Amino acid sequence: MEKKDFEAWLDNISITFLSLTDLQKNETLDYLISLSGAVQLRHLSNNLEILLKRDFLKLLPLELSFYLLKWLDPQTLLTCCLVSKQWNKVISACTEVWQTACKNLGWQIDDSVQDPLHWKKVYLKAILRMKQLKDHEAFETSSLIGHSARVYALYYKDGLLCTGSDDLSAKLWDVSTGQCIYGIQTHTCAAVKFDEQKLVTGSFDNTVACWEWSSGAKTQHFRGHTGAVFSVDYNDELDILVSGSADFTVKVWALSTGTCLNTLTGHTEWVTKVVLQKCKVKSLMHSPGDYILLSADKYEIKIWPIGREINCKCLKTLSVSEDRSISLQPRLHFDGKYIVCSSALGLYQWDFASYNILRVIKPPDFSNVSLLGFGEIFALLFDNRYLYIMDLRTEKLISRWPLPEYRKSKRGSSFLAGEMSWLNGLNGQNDMGLVFATSMPDHSIHLVLWKEHG
């Protein structure tokens, strides 16, 4: 058939075909397919695949596309980004998808940032960091060398680490460079806490002292305990210093004058930890903004309303066993809303508003695991061999890091968590600096630090 005649025939049959019902069209196609050979069937098969495809992301309204994308996991979304430039543009523009993906990884989300490309980049950065944690490759180690005797006291703040030693000195280190900024002569230090101007030390000589960094001078001496002072805390706004001692007491001092304002009794073991912190929740016993003192011994945690009156009475005593058969670990977490402490039974979290136990976390072989830090998303734990990171949403250990043979003695070793903000969720900025520090048998300080992002 000539081309001209074929085109006329095709136009005529097309008009007739369009006038048929759907059933008649189907019967016509069935008949034509039955008359077709292999070449025609192959041609039909190839063209049907193309004709049946629909680019739904291109055809749908953007809001509907975003709704559908929310049901896909991030890894699938990244694969979908490779389909076409259009798909990559639509998927990358879905802010909520990438924010949700970051949240699921334990990342902090700043809802004020609405740039979708920013959140896609954050997610890719988060994936890398979480893979490093899973593969036990997120950290690196370093050492601080300078003391000539056992280092017992450690305190960390804003990139600076203070160490107190039996060599009768205290040193302030820049963790990022490993350089010693200040070194002053002190007494034997069992506890240290510092700010820009001063250092406060609790000592095995039963006293507390305040020192000036710039000159090394002792500006105040607090005498009155009859046992070693294992823990100190202070607040310049209240002009109060508190100390916990092996004499089973907690003393409240005027920070500026060194006068003992009150002695809090009731403990029947060494008081190994005192924490002075603002309350963030309301109850019948306290209001947000009240200053609270926590003191802990081997078996109990006592709560004192230190901000209202110096001559305060104990509000509550917390423990994990009535018969004192279970000991508490000396490290204590209190952020104004929750109290957390570890024991051989597990990790205990109390609600500060009600004093009720919210939960008990029991990872495998928890009898040897101790608490270092506790946040909204992650907890930092350790035992004799490893440093652990736990996802508190699942109560699963997601990473570990080997620890060296650190010092073991009758008085124990000093351990310290570094930067703590990442425990409330990583954000790509707070996963840097010090993670963990401990004293070593050779009098050095072993540091575990975040590796820089790749």
Automatic annotation (TrEMBL):
Positions of the WD repeats?
Answer: 144-183, 222-263
Q: Please verify whether the record's keywords include Acetylation.
A: yes
Which CDD domains does UniProt cross-reference here? F-box_FBXW2 (cd22131)
> Which branch of life, at top level?
Eukaryota
What UniProt keywords are attached to this protein's entry?
Acetylation, Repeat, Ubl conjugation pathway, WD repeat
**Gene3D superfamilies under this entry?**
1.20.1280.50, YVTN repeat-like/Quinoprotein amine dehydrogenase (2.130.10.10)
One Pfam family hit: WD40
SMART domains noted in UniProt: FBOX, WD40
Q: What does this protein do?
A: Substrate-recognition component of the SCF (SKP1-CUL1-F-box protein)-type E3 ubiquitin ligase complex.
Q: What quaternary structure, including any partners, is listed in this protein's UniProt entry?
A: Directly interacts with SKP1 and CUL1.
The protein here is known as: F-box/WD repeat-containing protein 2
